[in-house]
Amino acid sequence: MSELSPRRRLLVLAICCMSLLLVSLDNTVLNVALPSLQRDLDASTSGLQWTIDAYTLVLASLLMLAGSTADRIGRRRVFTAGLVVFTLGSLLCSLAPNLEALVAFRMVQAVGGSMLNPVAMSIITNTFTDPRERARAIGAWGAVVGLSMAAGPLVGGLLVDSVGWRSIFWINLPVGLAALVLTLRFVPESRAPKARRADPVGQLLVIALFGSLTYAIIEAPHASLSTTVPFGAVALASLVALLRYESRRHEPLIDLRFFRSAPFSGATVIAVSAFASLGGFLFLSTLYLQNVRGLSALEAGLWMLPMALPTFLCAPLSGRLVGNRGPRLPLLIAGGAMTAAGLLFALFEAETSNATLAVGYVLFGVGFGFVNAPITNTAVSGMPRAQAGVASAVASTSRQLGQALGVAVIGAVLAAGVDSSSYAESFTEASRPGWWILTACGLAVLVVGAATSGRWARATARRTAERLESAEIREVAGADA
Which of the two residues, 195 and 121, has the higher pLDDT score? Predict the structure, then answer.
Protein backbone atom coordinates (compact mmCIF):
# COMPACT_ATOMS: atom_id res chain seq x y z
CA MET A 1 0.00 0.00 0.00
CA SER A 2 1.48 3.40 -1.05
CA GLU A 3 2.14 6.11 1.55
CA LEU A 4 -0.97 8.22 2.16
CA SER A 5 -1.15 11.90 3.00
CA PRO A 6 -1.62 12.85 6.68
CA ARG A 7 -5.23 13.91 6.04
CA ARG A 8 -6.01 10.65 4.23
CA ARG A 9 -4.45 8.62 7.04
CA LEU A 10 -6.63 10.37 9.61
CA LEU A 11 -9.69 9.74 7.46
CA VAL A 12 -8.84 6.02 7.24
CA LEU A 13 -8.42 5.99 11.04
CA ALA A 14 -11.84 7.64 11.47
CA ILE A 15 -13.51 5.07 9.22
CA CYS A 16 -11.88 2.19 11.10
CA CYS A 17 -12.99 3.74 14.39
CA MET A 18 -16.57 3.80 13.08
CA SER A 19 -16.44 0.03 12.72
CA LEU A 20 -15.19 -0.35 16.28
CA LEU A 21 -17.96 1.96 17.46
CA LEU A 22 -20.49 -0.33 15.78
CA VAL A 23 -19.25 -3.46 17.52
CA SER A 24 -18.48 -2.02 20.96
CA LEU A 25 -21.60 0.18 21.13
CA ASP A 26 -23.71 -2.88 20.38
CA ASN A 27 -22.37 -4.66 23.47
CA THR A 28 -22.75 -1.74 25.90
CA VAL A 29 -26.24 -0.87 24.65
CA LEU A 30 -27.37 -4.49 24.96
CA ASN A 31 -26.18 -4.76 28.57
CA VAL A 32 -28.48 -1.92 29.64
CA ALA A 33 -31.38 -3.58 27.79
CA LEU A 34 -30.94 -7.01 29.46
CA PRO A 35 -33.59 -6.62 32.23
CA SER A 36 -36.16 -5.29 29.71
CA LEU A 37 -35.32 -8.10 27.30
CA GLN A 38 -35.57 -10.61 30.16
CA ARG A 39 -39.11 -9.50 30.96
CA ASP A 40 -40.28 -9.24 27.35
CA LEU A 41 -38.90 -12.61 26.19
CA ASP A 42 -39.25 -14.41 29.56
CA ALA A 43 -35.51 -15.19 29.60
CA SER A 44 -33.60 -16.85 32.43
CA THR A 45 -30.13 -15.75 33.62
CA SER A 46 -28.56 -18.33 31.30
CA GLY A 47 -30.70 -17.00 28.46
CA LEU A 48 -29.29 -13.52 29.07
CA GLN A 49 -25.79 -14.98 29.09
CA TRP A 50 -26.37 -16.62 25.71
CA THR A 51 -27.69 -13.36 24.28
CA ILE A 52 -24.26 -11.86 24.93
CA ASP A 53 -22.05 -14.93 24.56
CA ALA A 54 -23.55 -16.21 21.30
CA TYR A 55 -22.20 -13.01 19.77
CA THR A 56 -18.81 -12.96 21.47
CA LEU A 57 -18.19 -16.69 20.91
CA VAL A 58 -18.83 -16.57 17.17
CA LEU A 59 -16.79 -13.39 17.00
CA ALA A 60 -13.87 -14.96 18.87
CA SER A 61 -14.03 -18.15 16.79
CA LEU A 62 -13.89 -16.37 13.43
CA LEU A 63 -11.56 -13.42 14.11
CA MET A 64 -8.36 -15.25 13.18
CA LEU A 65 -9.95 -16.65 10.02
CA ALA A 66 -11.08 -13.14 9.08
CA GLY A 67 -7.63 -11.69 9.75
CA SER A 68 -5.78 -14.23 7.64
CA THR A 69 -8.42 -14.07 4.90
CA ALA A 70 -8.08 -10.28 4.78
CA ASP A 71 -4.30 -10.59 4.44
CA ARG A 72 -4.87 -13.03 1.59
CA ILE A 73 -7.71 -11.60 -0.54
CA GLY A 74 -7.68 -7.93 0.48
CA ARG A 75 -8.35 -6.05 3.68
CA ARG A 76 -10.81 -3.53 2.26
CA ARG A 77 -12.79 -6.30 0.55
CA VAL A 78 -13.23 -8.27 3.79
CA PHE A 79 -13.89 -5.10 5.78
CA THR A 80 -16.65 -4.08 3.36
CA ALA A 81 -18.26 -7.52 3.55
CA GLY A 82 -18.20 -7.30 7.34
CA LEU A 83 -20.05 -3.99 7.33
CA VAL A 84 -22.77 -5.43 5.09
CA VAL A 85 -23.29 -8.60 7.17
CA PHE A 86 -23.17 -6.77 10.52
CA THR A 87 -25.75 -4.20 9.41
CA LEU A 88 -28.04 -6.95 8.08
CA GLY A 89 -27.66 -8.90 11.32
CA SER A 90 -28.62 -5.80 13.32
CA LEU A 91 -31.81 -5.44 11.29
CA LEU A 92 -32.69 -9.09 11.91
CA CYS A 93 -32.06 -8.74 15.66
CA SER A 94 -34.54 -5.88 15.82
CA LEU A 95 -37.19 -8.20 14.30
CA ALA A 96 -36.50 -11.28 16.48
CA PRO A 97 -39.80 -12.84 17.67
CA ASN A 98 -38.28 -14.82 20.58
CA LEU A 99 -35.07 -15.45 22.52
CA GLU A 100 -33.92 -18.31 20.30
CA ALA A 101 -34.24 -16.16 17.16
CA LEU A 102 -32.44 -13.27 18.85
CA VAL A 103 -29.52 -15.53 19.77
CA ALA A 104 -29.36 -16.83 16.19
CA PHE A 105 -29.44 -13.32 14.69
CA ARG A 106 -26.76 -12.19 17.16
CA MET A 107 -24.59 -14.90 15.64
CA VAL A 108 -25.21 -13.41 12.18
CA GLN A 109 -24.10 -10.06 13.58
CA ALA A 110 -20.96 -11.70 14.93
CA VAL A 111 -20.02 -13.15 11.53
CA GLY A 112 -19.96 -9.59 10.20
CA GLY A 113 -18.25 -8.24 13.32
CA SER A 114 -15.42 -10.78 12.94
CA MET A 115 -14.51 -9.07 9.65
CA LEU A 116 -14.36 -5.60 11.19
CA ASN A 117 -12.12 -5.12 14.23
CA PRO A 118 -9.06 -7.24 13.36
CA VAL A 119 -9.15 -6.12 9.73
CA ALA A 120 -9.54 -2.48 10.76
CA MET A 121 -6.55 -2.82 13.09
CA SER A 122 -4.53 -4.37 10.27
CA ILE A 123 -5.50 -1.43 8.03
CA ILE A 124 -4.37 1.00 10.75
CA THR A 125 -1.08 -0.87 11.23
CA ASN A 126 -0.32 -0.71 7.54
CA THR A 127 -1.45 2.93 7.27
CA PHE A 128 0.52 4.31 10.24
CA THR A 129 4.03 2.93 9.74
CA ASP A 130 5.81 5.23 12.22
CA PRO A 131 5.79 3.55 15.68
CA ARG A 132 4.84 6.73 17.54
CA GLU A 133 2.10 7.65 15.08
CA ARG A 134 0.80 4.08 15.28
CA ALA A 135 0.70 4.17 19.08
CA ARG A 136 -1.27 7.43 19.02
CA ALA A 137 -3.63 6.05 16.39
CA ILE A 138 -4.21 2.97 18.52
CA GLY A 139 -4.83 5.27 21.50
CA ALA A 140 -7.54 7.06 19.51
CA TRP A 141 -8.90 3.64 18.53
CA GLY A 142 -9.05 2.69 22.20
CA ALA A 143 -10.84 5.95 23.02
CA VAL A 144 -13.72 4.75 20.84
CA VAL A 145 -14.28 1.93 23.35
CA GLY A 146 -14.58 4.58 26.04
CA LEU A 147 -16.94 6.60 23.84
CA SER A 148 -19.14 3.53 23.35
CA MET A 149 -19.14 2.89 27.10
CA ALA A 150 -20.14 6.50 27.74
CA ALA A 151 -22.74 6.81 25.00
CA GLY A 152 -23.98 3.21 24.98
CA PRO A 153 -25.70 3.08 28.38
CA LEU A 154 -27.26 6.53 27.91
CA VAL A 155 -28.43 5.93 24.35
CA GLY A 156 -29.55 2.42 25.20
CA GLY A 157 -31.37 3.53 28.34
CA LEU A 158 -33.16 6.31 26.50
CA LEU A 159 -34.20 4.00 23.66
CA VAL A 160 -35.30 1.15 25.95
CA ASP A 161 -37.38 3.45 28.15
CA SER A 162 -38.98 5.36 25.26
CA VAL A 163 -39.26 2.88 22.36
CA GLY A 164 -38.27 -0.59 23.59
CA TRP A 165 -35.25 -2.88 23.49
CA ARG A 166 -35.60 -3.62 19.76
CA SER A 167 -34.65 -0.04 18.92
CA ILE A 168 -31.12 -0.55 20.28
CA PHE A 169 -30.29 -2.45 17.09
CA TRP A 170 -31.65 0.28 14.83
CA ILE A 171 -28.80 2.66 15.66
CA ASN A 172 -26.37 0.31 13.89
CA LEU A 173 -28.11 0.79 10.55
CA PRO A 174 -27.15 4.42 9.72
CA VAL A 175 -23.64 4.04 11.17
CA GLY A 176 -23.05 0.83 9.21
CA LEU A 177 -24.29 2.32 5.93
CA ALA A 178 -22.20 5.49 6.39
CA ALA A 179 -19.07 3.44 7.16
CA LEU A 180 -19.73 1.29 4.08
CA VAL A 181 -19.95 4.30 1.73
CA LEU A 182 -16.83 5.92 3.20
CA THR A 183 -14.85 2.67 3.04
CA LEU A 184 -15.60 2.20 -0.65
CA ARG A 185 -14.59 5.81 -1.31
CA PHE A 186 -11.48 6.37 0.80
CA VAL A 187 -9.91 3.17 2.21
CA PRO A 188 -7.17 1.77 -0.07
CA GLU A 189 -6.89 -1.95 -0.72
CA SER A 190 -3.93 -3.83 0.80
CA ARG A 191 -2.78 -7.43 1.05
CA ALA A 192 0.08 -9.40 2.55
CA PRO A 193 2.94 -10.05 0.09
CA LYS A 194 2.51 -13.80 0.57
CA ALA A 195 -1.01 -15.13 1.13
CA ARG A 196 -1.64 -17.72 3.81
CA ARG A 197 -3.60 -20.83 2.96
CA ALA A 198 -6.87 -21.60 4.72
CA ASP A 199 -6.75 -23.89 7.77
CA PRO A 200 -10.20 -25.52 8.07
CA VAL A 201 -9.09 -28.12 10.64
CA GLY A 202 -7.64 -25.46 12.92
CA GLN A 203 -10.78 -23.37 12.51
CA LEU A 204 -13.05 -26.27 13.51
CA LEU A 205 -10.90 -27.01 16.55
CA VAL A 206 -11.12 -23.37 17.68
CA ILE A 207 -14.92 -23.42 17.34
CA ALA A 208 -15.14 -26.71 19.28
CA LEU A 209 -12.86 -25.38 22.03
CA PHE A 210 -14.62 -22.05 22.57
CA GLY A 211 -18.16 -23.35 22.17
CA SER A 212 -17.87 -26.43 24.39
CA LEU A 213 -15.99 -24.58 27.14
CA THR A 214 -18.53 -21.76 27.32
CA TYR A 215 -21.51 -24.15 27.18
CA ALA A 216 -20.12 -26.20 30.07
CA ILE A 217 -19.64 -23.05 32.20
CA ILE A 218 -23.01 -21.43 31.48
CA GLU A 219 -25.07 -24.58 31.93
CA ALA A 220 -23.18 -25.89 34.99
CA PRO A 221 -25.58 -24.38 37.58
CA HIS A 222 -28.64 -25.91 35.88
CA ALA A 223 -27.51 -29.13 34.18
CA SER A 224 -26.25 -32.40 35.63
CA LEU A 225 -22.60 -33.48 35.58
CA SER A 226 -23.44 -36.04 32.91
CA THR A 227 -24.36 -33.12 30.65
CA THR A 228 -21.57 -30.64 31.41
CA VAL A 229 -18.58 -32.98 31.89
CA PRO A 230 -18.62 -34.27 28.29
CA PHE A 231 -18.49 -30.68 27.02
CA GLY A 232 -15.56 -29.98 29.33
CA ALA A 233 -13.83 -33.06 27.96
CA VAL A 234 -14.46 -31.88 24.39
CA ALA A 235 -12.91 -28.51 25.26
CA LEU A 236 -9.79 -30.14 26.71
CA ALA A 237 -9.42 -32.55 23.78
CA SER A 238 -9.88 -29.68 21.31
CA LEU A 239 -7.17 -27.63 23.04
CA VAL A 240 -4.66 -30.49 22.98
CA ALA A 241 -5.44 -31.30 19.34
CA LEU A 242 -5.21 -27.62 18.36
CA LEU A 243 -1.78 -27.19 19.91
CA ARG A 244 -0.43 -30.38 18.31
CA TYR A 245 -1.92 -29.73 14.88
CA GLU A 246 -1.03 -26.03 14.62
CA SER A 247 2.57 -26.59 15.70
CA ARG A 248 3.08 -29.02 12.79
CA ARG A 249 1.28 -27.06 10.08
CA HIS A 250 3.31 -24.94 7.66
CA GLU A 251 0.77 -22.08 7.56
CA PRO A 252 -1.39 -22.44 10.69
CA LEU A 253 -4.49 -20.52 11.65
CA ILE A 254 -2.71 -19.60 14.91
CA ASP A 255 1.02 -19.12 14.44
CA LEU A 256 2.34 -20.48 17.73
CA ARG A 257 5.72 -18.85 17.00
CA PHE A 258 4.14 -15.51 17.99
CA PHE A 259 3.98 -16.73 21.58
CA ARG A 260 7.78 -16.98 21.80
CA SER A 261 7.58 -13.22 22.28
CA ALA A 262 6.97 -12.57 25.98
CA PRO A 263 5.18 -9.23 25.33
CA PHE A 264 2.87 -10.89 22.80
CA SER A 265 2.06 -13.77 25.17
CA GLY A 266 1.58 -11.28 27.99
CA ALA A 267 -0.73 -9.13 25.86
CA THR A 268 -2.85 -12.23 25.15
CA VAL A 269 -3.20 -13.11 28.84
CA ILE A 270 -3.88 -9.48 29.76
CA ALA A 271 -6.54 -9.16 27.03
CA VAL A 272 -8.38 -12.26 28.30
CA SER A 273 -8.18 -11.08 31.93
CA ALA A 274 -9.14 -7.44 31.27
CA PHE A 275 -12.08 -8.22 29.02
CA ALA A 276 -13.30 -11.04 31.28
CA SER A 277 -13.36 -8.41 33.99
CA LEU A 278 -15.25 -5.99 31.72
CA GLY A 279 -17.85 -8.58 30.69
CA GLY A 280 -18.47 -9.67 34.27
CA PHE A 281 -18.47 -6.11 35.61
CA LEU A 282 -21.09 -4.89 33.14
CA PHE A 283 -23.23 -8.01 33.64
CA LEU A 284 -23.27 -7.68 37.44
CA SER A 285 -23.73 -3.90 37.42
CA THR A 286 -26.64 -3.89 34.98
CA LEU A 287 -28.61 -6.55 36.84
CA TYR A 288 -27.89 -4.94 40.20
CA LEU A 289 -28.89 -1.41 39.21
CA GLN A 290 -32.15 -2.41 37.52
CA ASN A 291 -33.26 -5.62 39.22
CA VAL A 292 -32.09 -4.86 42.77
CA ARG A 293 -32.17 -1.05 43.02
CA GLY A 294 -35.17 -0.85 40.71
CA LEU A 295 -33.73 1.85 38.46
CA SER A 296 -34.95 2.42 34.92
CA ALA A 297 -32.70 1.64 31.97
CA LEU A 298 -31.87 5.33 31.53
CA GLU A 299 -31.11 5.80 35.24
CA ALA A 300 -28.84 2.74 35.12
CA GLY A 301 -27.10 4.23 32.09
CA LEU A 302 -26.48 7.47 33.99
CA TRP A 303 -25.01 5.49 36.89
CA MET A 304 -22.46 3.93 34.51
CA LEU A 305 -21.08 7.33 33.46
CA PRO A 306 -18.52 7.36 36.32
CA MET A 307 -17.05 4.23 34.73
CA ALA A 308 -17.45 5.24 31.09
CA LEU A 309 -16.01 8.77 31.18
CA PRO A 310 -12.63 7.78 32.72
CA THR A 311 -12.33 5.05 30.10
CA PHE A 312 -12.92 7.59 27.34
CA LEU A 313 -10.47 10.12 28.81
CA CYS A 314 -7.70 7.69 29.76
CA ALA A 315 -7.54 5.73 26.49
CA PRO A 316 -5.80 8.44 24.39
CA LEU A 317 -3.52 9.26 27.35
CA SER A 318 -2.57 5.59 27.46
CA GLY A 319 -1.81 5.65 23.74
CA ARG A 320 0.53 8.63 24.18
CA LEU A 321 2.27 6.95 27.13
CA VAL A 322 2.79 3.77 25.09
CA GLY A 323 4.23 5.82 22.22
CA ASN A 324 6.59 7.82 24.45
CA ARG A 325 7.50 5.45 27.28
CA GLY A 326 6.35 1.99 26.31
CA PRO A 327 3.53 -0.21 27.66
CA ARG A 328 4.79 -0.84 31.20
CA LEU A 329 3.38 2.22 33.02
CA PRO A 330 -0.11 2.03 31.41
CA LEU A 331 -0.33 -1.68 32.28
CA LEU A 332 0.67 -1.06 35.91
CA ILE A 333 -1.93 1.72 36.22
CA ALA A 334 -4.57 -0.47 34.57
CA GLY A 335 -3.90 -3.53 36.73
CA GLY A 336 -3.70 -1.51 39.96
CA ALA A 337 -6.94 0.38 39.32
CA MET A 338 -8.91 -2.71 38.24
CA THR A 339 -7.67 -4.68 41.26
CA ALA A 340 -8.62 -1.84 43.61
CA ALA A 341 -12.09 -1.64 42.06
CA GLY A 342 -12.65 -5.37 42.50
CA LEU A 343 -11.48 -5.29 46.13
CA LEU A 344 -13.79 -2.38 46.88
CA PHE A 345 -16.79 -4.50 45.85
CA ALA A 346 -15.51 -7.84 47.18
CA LEU A 347 -14.43 -6.63 50.65
CA PHE A 348 -16.52 -3.54 51.35
CA GLU A 349 -19.78 -4.18 49.44
CA ALA A 350 -19.29 -0.98 47.45
CA GLU A 351 -22.59 -1.38 45.64
CA THR A 352 -24.58 -0.81 48.83
CA SER A 353 -23.47 2.84 49.14
CA ASN A 354 -23.80 5.52 46.45
CA ALA A 355 -20.38 7.02 47.25
CA THR A 356 -18.41 3.76 47.20
CA LEU A 357 -20.35 2.56 44.14
CA ALA A 358 -19.27 5.69 42.23
CA VAL A 359 -15.65 5.32 43.41
CA GLY A 360 -15.61 1.68 42.31
CA TYR A 361 -16.94 2.62 38.89
CA VAL A 362 -14.34 5.39 38.49
CA LEU A 363 -11.48 3.06 39.44
CA PHE A 364 -12.62 0.40 37.00
CA GLY A 365 -13.06 2.99 34.24
CA VAL A 366 -9.53 4.32 34.75
CA GLY A 367 -8.09 0.80 34.70
CA PHE A 368 -9.93 -0.27 31.59
CA GLY A 369 -9.10 3.01 29.85
CA PHE A 370 -5.38 2.38 30.26
CA VAL A 371 -5.36 -1.30 29.27
CA ASN A 372 -6.50 -1.34 25.65
CA ALA A 373 -3.71 0.62 23.93
CA PRO A 374 -0.78 -1.41 25.37
CA ILE A 375 -2.55 -4.68 24.50
CA THR A 376 -3.07 -3.72 20.87
CA ASN A 377 0.26 -1.99 20.36
CA THR A 378 2.23 -4.85 21.90
CA ALA A 379 0.38 -7.45 19.85
CA VAL A 380 1.12 -5.87 16.47
CA SER A 381 4.24 -3.72 16.87
CA GLY A 382 6.74 -6.58 17.14
CA MET A 383 5.34 -8.58 14.24
CA PRO A 384 6.14 -8.33 10.52
CA ARG A 385 3.69 -5.98 8.78
CA ALA A 386 2.78 -8.79 6.38
CA GLN A 387 1.30 -10.73 9.33
CA ALA A 388 -0.40 -7.75 10.97
CA GLY A 389 -3.84 -9.17 10.24
CA VAL A 390 -3.12 -12.49 11.95
CA ALA A 391 -1.39 -10.87 14.94
CA SER A 392 -4.15 -8.32 15.54
CA ALA A 393 -6.74 -11.07 15.10
CA VAL A 394 -5.15 -13.08 17.92
CA ALA A 395 -5.33 -9.98 20.16
CA SER A 396 -8.97 -9.36 19.18
CA THR A 397 -9.79 -13.03 19.73
CA SER A 398 -8.31 -12.83 23.22
CA ARG A 399 -10.54 -9.85 24.00
CA GLN A 400 -13.73 -11.52 22.81
CA LEU A 401 -12.89 -14.86 24.44
CA GLY A 402 -12.20 -13.04 27.70
CA GLN A 403 -15.52 -11.20 27.55
CA ALA A 404 -17.41 -14.42 26.76
CA LEU A 405 -15.74 -16.26 29.66
CA GLY A 406 -16.33 -13.32 32.01
CA VAL A 407 -20.07 -13.30 31.32
CA ALA A 408 -20.21 -17.12 31.45
CA VAL A 409 -18.34 -17.50 34.75
CA ILE A 410 -19.90 -14.53 36.56
CA GLY A 411 -23.37 -15.46 35.30
CA ALA A 412 -22.91 -19.07 36.43
CA VAL A 413 -21.76 -17.97 39.89
CA LEU A 414 -24.70 -15.59 40.16
CA ALA A 415 -27.24 -18.17 38.95
CA ALA A 416 -25.96 -20.70 41.48
CA GLY A 417 -26.31 -18.29 44.41
CA VAL A 418 -29.39 -16.16 43.73
CA ASP A 419 -32.68 -17.26 45.26
CA SER A 420 -35.44 -16.50 42.74
CA SER A 421 -38.00 -16.06 45.51
CA SER A 422 -35.93 -13.30 47.18
CA TYR A 423 -33.84 -12.00 44.27
CA ALA A 424 -32.98 -8.56 45.63
CA GLU A 425 -32.07 -9.83 49.10
CA SER A 426 -29.83 -12.64 47.86
CA PHE A 427 -28.14 -10.79 44.97
CA THR A 428 -25.46 -8.96 47.00
CA GLU A 429 -24.29 -12.13 48.77
CA ALA A 430 -24.49 -14.24 45.61
CA SER A 431 -22.40 -11.72 43.67
CA ARG A 432 -19.54 -11.70 46.23
CA PRO A 433 -17.59 -14.63 44.66
CA GLY A 434 -17.98 -12.91 41.29
CA TRP A 435 -16.33 -9.74 42.60
CA TRP A 436 -13.42 -11.81 43.92
CA ILE A 437 -13.02 -13.36 40.46
CA LEU A 438 -12.94 -9.88 38.90
CA THR A 439 -10.33 -8.84 41.50
CA ALA A 440 -8.18 -11.78 40.42
CA CYS A 441 -8.52 -10.68 36.79
CA GLY A 442 -7.27 -7.19 37.68
CA LEU A 443 -4.37 -8.69 39.63
CA ALA A 444 -3.47 -10.81 36.59
CA VAL A 445 -3.29 -7.64 34.46
CA LEU A 446 -0.97 -6.05 37.04
CA VAL A 447 1.38 -9.03 37.53
CA VAL A 448 1.58 -10.17 33.90
CA GLY A 449 1.94 -6.58 32.70
CA ALA A 450 4.89 -6.01 35.03
CA ALA A 451 6.50 -9.33 34.12
CA THR A 452 6.26 -9.06 30.32
CA SER A 453 7.11 -5.39 29.74
CA GLY A 454 10.71 -5.39 30.97
CA ARG A 455 14.02 -5.45 29.08
CA TRP A 456 14.26 -9.23 28.84
CA ALA A 457 10.72 -9.41 27.46
CA ARG A 458 11.55 -6.86 24.74
CA ALA A 459 14.57 -8.96 23.84
CA THR A 460 12.35 -12.00 23.24
CA ALA A 461 10.12 -9.84 21.05
CA ARG A 462 13.08 -8.73 18.91
CA ARG A 463 14.31 -12.30 18.50
CA THR A 464 10.82 -13.50 17.57
CA ALA A 465 10.38 -10.71 15.01
CA GLU A 466 13.79 -11.46 13.46
CA ARG A 467 12.98 -15.16 13.15
CA LEU A 468 9.59 -14.46 11.61
CA GLU A 469 11.11 -11.97 9.16
CA SER A 470 13.83 -14.43 8.18
CA ALA A 471 11.34 -17.25 7.72
CA GLU A 472 9.13 -14.97 5.63
CA ILE A 473 12.05 -13.94 3.38
CA ARG A 474 13.02 -17.59 2.85
CA GLU A 475 9.42 -18.52 2.00
CA VAL A 476 9.08 -15.67 -0.50
CA ALA A 477 12.44 -16.49 -2.06
CA GLY A 478 11.44 -20.14 -2.36
CA ALA A 479 8.13 -19.20 -3.98
CA ASP A 480 9.91 -16.92 -6.50
CA ALA A 481 12.41 -19.66 -7.37
Answer: 121
Averaged pLDDT, 299-306? 88
23-50 pLDDT, tens digit per residue, is 877 777 888 888 888 889 888 878 888 9
Give the pLDDT score at 382. Answer: 60
* Single-letter code of the amino acid located at 138: I
The alpha-helical segments, DSSP class H, found in 326-353 are 328-348
Q: Which of 409, 416, 412, 418 is nearest to 440 (CA)?
A: 409
Q: Output the 3-class SS for the chain.
A: CCCCCHHHHHHHHHHHHHHHHHHHHHHHHHHHHHHHHHHHHCCCHHHHHHHHHHHHHHHHHHHHHHHHHHHHHCHHHHHHHHHHHHHHHHHHHHCCCCHHHHHHHHHHHHHHHCCCHHHHHHHHHHHCCCHHHHHHHHHHHHHHHHHHHHHHHHHHHHHHHHCCHHHHHCCHHHHHHHHHHHHHHHCCCCCCCCCCCCCHHHHHHHHHHHHHHHHHHHHCCCCCHHHHHHHHHHHHHHHHHHHHHHHHCCCCCCCHHHHHCHHHHHHHHHHHHHHHHHHHHHHHHHHHHHHHCCCCHHHHHHHCHHHHHHHHHHHHHHHHHHHHHCCHHHHHHHHHHHHHHHHHHHHHCHHHCHHHHHHHHHHHHHHHHHHHHHHHHHHHHCCCHHHHHHHHHHHHHHHHHHHHHHHHHHHHHHHHHCCHHHHHHHHHHHHHHHHHHHHHHHHHHHHHHHHCCCHHHHHHHHHHHHHHHHHHHHHHHHHHC
The pLDDT of 325-333, averaged and rounded, is 90
